[in-house]
Structures are given as structure tokens and as C-alpha cells.
Amino acid sequence: MLKGSVPIAIGGIEDPAAYGEVVSIGGLNPDVHKKLSAAISTILKAKLSVPLTRFFLKFYDTLGSSFGWNGTIL
């Protein structure tokens, strides 16, 4: 989900910025974090003009049992 026009202050400055979260059911590790961060940052810079220094990305690696689907859990 992308939600625009939400004020974000980084260091007290409200210039263009972004915050994102990646949730995965397994498969995340520091190497994957680094690759995803680089790829997503590049897209945000190119498409939304968000400087790399004004983008934060949080990673969550969770179990399938933390997600309900189709009347049960994964």
C-alpha cells in the first residue's frame, strides 16, 4: 500500500521522505535485506524523487502461523 501526502520529518526537516515495511514468511536475512533495500531505494529515487538518505525500510520475518488465511493459518 502506498499512502501519499503524509508528513514525515527526518532530522526535523519535512522534505520528501519515505518509510516502508517488508513482511516475509521466511526467507529474510541480512543479505536479502541489503539487496531489497538497494532495489527499493533505487525505485523510490527514480519514481518519487525520494533521496536515499530520506528513506527508511523495516524488515519483518515471521512464521506462517502469524497469518490467518482461508479460515485457518498458513
From TrEMBL:
Q: Name one Pfam family in it.
A: MIF
Molecular function GO labels? phenylpyruvate tautomerase activity
Coiled-coil boundaries: none
Stored InterPro entries: Macrophage_inhib_fac (IPR001398), Tautomerase/MIF_sf (IPR014347)
List the GO terms this entry assigns under cellular component, sorted alphabetically.
extracellular space
**In which family does this protein belong, per the annotation?**
Belongs to the MIF family.
Name this protein carries in UniProt: Macrophage migration inhibitory factor
Report the source organism: Camellia sinensis
> Which lineage do the record's taxonomy fields give for this organism?
Eukaryota, Viridiplantae, Streptophyta, Embryophyta, Tracheophyta
